[in-house]
Request: fold
Amino acid sequence: MLLFLIKLVRHLTDRDPDWRQNTVLILDNAQYHRSKMMLAWCKDLKIPLMFLGSYQYNLAPIELMFSYIKARDLNPDKIRAASK
Reply:
């Protein structure tokens, strides 16, 4: 995870050195997101964080992509229909 965060910070900094002024990393309340190690890494890398409230999956933009993939690409009925 640390390697990902470092690469993310480098990429964002290359694109816009002031990215921290208008960017927030949104995380759910998974235990590993709230771990002391993860929070320390984000603090050291000066990554702005925002945590979703409990059971607020509808506020996480990635959940829209997950629902699309589950409905389309992982749906057994859709896979069978496409293979005919």
